[in-house]
Structure formats: structure tokens, C-alpha cells
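A quick aside before the break. I want you to see a complete sequence-to-structure record at least once, exactly as it would be stored in a machine-readable document. Don't worry about memorizing anything.
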Amino acid sequence: MDMTTVGDTGLLDTLQHEVAVFARRAEQTRLGGVGQVRNSMDRAAYLLLNRLDKEGPMGVKALAASMGIDSSTVTRQVAPLVDTGLVKRTSHPEDGRAVVLQLSPRGLSRLDEVRSSRRQLMAELTRDWEPDERETFCALLTRFNTALSARMTVQPASDTPPAT
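That is the input. The structure line, written in C-alpha cells, reads:
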């Protein structure tokens, strides 16, 4: 059933507006955190470093696939991280010709600083929330992001232009 025809248009209008406002505010602040670390790491760098920390060393193609983006985008985004020493390029342990990207000790330290700062910001923004409200918000935001990712991966047939 199409959600836009079941009387939810007002709610859906509010949802799309709030998502747009959230996206703008997030970009304005980059959800960078507080203190000296605030706004000191862009979103792409944070997501790449975070993925390497969570999943370990991997090649460009594997990193791109795990993030749902193009390999050329990863290559472009990783270059400054390598240049600044946050990511190391190493040889693949089984195939010396292949390159593996790995979080450097400096990268891990920097990531920890940014995470701490962002954690402090999240605590500040939700300080008057009950713990169960934080959990519910996290669960719903995760569910929303998962739905967005799934939609980007497999577009519904109705969104496909007709063949000519």
C-alpha cells in the first residue's frame, strides 16, 4: 500500500521537512562535536576511518563495497588520509601486488578524539532525554538509514525510466 494515499500526507510532509532540516544542520555543524576537535574532520574521512577501525584492513574495492560507494570515490577520499598519515597503504599479506588500506596509529588516535568530541555533543543535545528515548531514537534512525541504503542499492521498478 502506498503510504502517501492512506491519510499520512501531513505526517510525511513533516517527516520530509524534518529530515531536510536535520541534513542541513548536520552539514552546518558536521556534527563535529565540541571543544577544539569540533568540525575538524569531514564526514567522508570520519566514515572511512570508522569503517577501517570496525572492519580492519581492506582493499579499496572491499572498502567501497562495504560503504556502498564507488571505488574511485574511495580512492579520491582516501588520498588525503594517506597524505596526512591517518591511513597506511600496505601490501596484501597473501598477494603482495595488492594494496590494503589500514588505519594508522595516528589515524586511530585522531578517530578516538573525534568520536569523544561527537559523543560529548550527542550527550549535550540529548541531555534532557530519558535513556529509553535515546535508545528509541537510535533504533529508528538506524532503521531509517538502513531503508535509505537498501533503496539506493535496489531501486524499485516504478523508479526506472521506460525503455526507448
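Two observations worth writing down. Confidence is low (pLDDT under 50) at residues 156-160. Residues 34 and 124 are 9 Å apart (CA to CA). We'll return to this after the break.
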